Amino acid sequence: MLTTPTFAIVGAGLAGAEAAAGLRAEGFDGRLVLLGEEAERPYDRPPLSKTYLRGEADRDSLYLFYAAHNIELYTSARVRSIDPPGRQLQLASGERISYQRLLLATGAAPRRLRRPGADLDGIYHLRNRRDADRLGAAVGRAARVVVVGTGWIGCEVAASVRQLGRDVTLVGPEAVPLARVLGPEIGCFYRDLHAEQGVRLALGTDIDAFRGDGRVEAVVTSDGRTLPCDLVLIGIGAIPRTELAEAAGIAGGDGVLVDEWLETIAPGVYAAGDVAAAWHPLLRTRLRVAHWANALHQGSVAARAMLGLPTRYERLPSFFSDQYDVSMEYSGLATASDRVVVRGDPATRQFVAFWVRHQHVVAGMNVNVRDVAEPIQALIRSGRDVDLARLADPDTPIRELADGDR
Ligand SMILES: Cc1cc2nc3c(=O)[nH]c(=O)nc-3n(C[C@H](O)[C@H](O)[C@H](O)COP(=O)(O)OP(=O)(O)OC[C@H]3O[C@@H](n4cnc5c(N)ncnc54)[C@H](O)[C@@H]3O)c2cc1C
Q: What is the pLDDT of residues 303-332, one digit of tens each?
């Protein structure tokens, strides 16, 4: 029989670490177990495709927190199964841990590309620090690099590798990079940015095969090109790690389904971060947001929810990206049919883009413009109709548009 309550967190990434710290900050004084299959304590992933990959940040700078707060951190500890009705989990080592509350923060894994030759040496994916170390070492030996995938990871790795002076070709099926999230207009900005930096672009094409004798030597595209290379990075998205939840019968199609309190259909079992598909009470849809800010904030909301404190997760989706000297932040949720209004001139690499639906702003992205993310979020939340000319006018403070004529 249990004496002190035990809360268990599976996944020692950002969401798991934030939840653990949050539980202690909220006064939880029972046993707190944080279980991670990686060999090290929680660390931050965004630098892995940027400063860390380029050798500008060292390993110590990645770590999120020291094993303070009396948290039992298990490293190299893969959880094999969970048993929600029995409130018990089992590690791959065979050890069993009973809990009162469980948080699933298992993140996501890189999507694989099933093509002939995809298992050749010299083909890399990027999710964790070991991947970044291997990729970084291989980039050091390579002259020609092909990056497959024009999403965030693909674009950031292409930028970093180019900054390291390698010959880079960026390949993807979309007409412009990042088109799925940003649409064609803003995607063009990123296409031109990479082209100006000397990245070769092979856009609008899929991959047919990877060629090489044991080791990759070329990528063959569906439109008939053969791209010679010494190294390939595949960055075509990530799949939520739902295997534990699935085996326990509590996963949905794309992630672990949770309500606005981040609880699953199994009482006492919560999910947060990249793995969680959460009901968003303001946007009135279910969202799985695989970005840093979401993992950070859902971690602390999950901690409050696990303690039964009043809370719900209603932050707008948001993310950031750094490529070359271009830093951006995006807030909100746009679709392909939303109208794009630009404030400033993208050619100067300093502008704000807004996505407008029925006269109100549903998303905004500031590029090399500081301190406007909060006003943009306030504007989105306000739901106010906006005058498009004022929206495009850099002299009209965004906060003023959010506050209206009060
Ligand atoms: C290279 C890279 C660059 C990024 N850059 C940006 C960026 O610029 N901006 C941005 O907004 N977002 C960025 N992100 C996304 C952001 O880092 C993620 O959204 C965030 O890390 C998600 O945190 P998480 O805790 O949900 O999952 P993770 O950080 O993936 O942590 C999950 C942990 O759970 C572990 N685990 C899984 N299953 C088990 C199990 N059965 N037992 C034990 N442990 C398990 C995993 O090994 C992992 O350590 C980037 C991601 C990557 C990979």
A: 999 999 999 999 999 999 999 999 999 999
Q: Ligand 1 center to residue 209 CA distance, Å?
A: 29
CA 85 – ligand 1 centroid, Å: 28
- pLDDT for 326-366, tens place per residue? 999 999 999 989 999 999 999 999 999 999 999 999 999 99
pLDDT at residue 119 greater than cutoff 70:
yes
Q: How far is the CA of 268 from the centre of ligand 1 (A)?
A: 23
CB 34 within 8 A of CB 9: yes
Reported as a single tens digit per residue, the pLDDT across 184-230 is: 999 999 999 999 999 999 999 999 999 999 999 999 999 999 999 99
- Nearest ligand 1 atom to alpha carbon 17: 25
Closest among 244, 2, 240 to 103, alpha carbons compared: 244
Regarding pTM above 0.90, the answer is: yes
Residue 110 sits at the vertex; the CA angle it makes with 362 and 138, to the nearest 5 degrees, is 120
Tell me the residue ranges of DSSP E strands in 84-157: 88-91, 96-98, 101-104, 108-110, 123-124, 144-148
**Residue 254: CB atoms within 10 Å:** 13
Q: Which residues contact 2 (CB under 8 A, 6 or more apart)?
A: 98, 100
**Which residue reads 């927190």 in tokens?**
65
* Residue to mutate, 242, 292, 327, ligand 1, most ligand atoms under 8 Å from C-beta: 292
Amino acid symbol at 345: D
| Burial of residue 196 (number of CB atoms within 10 Å: 0-12, 13-18, 19+) | exposed
Average pLDDT, the chain: 96
Q: Which candidate, 189, 178, 191, 215, places its Cα nearest to that of 368? A: 189
What is the rounded CA–CA span in Å between residue 324 and residue 345? Answer: 18
For 166-317, strand residue ranges (E) read 167-172, 200-203, 207-212, 216-221, 226-228, 231-234, 238-240, 256-258, 269-271, 276-280, 285-287
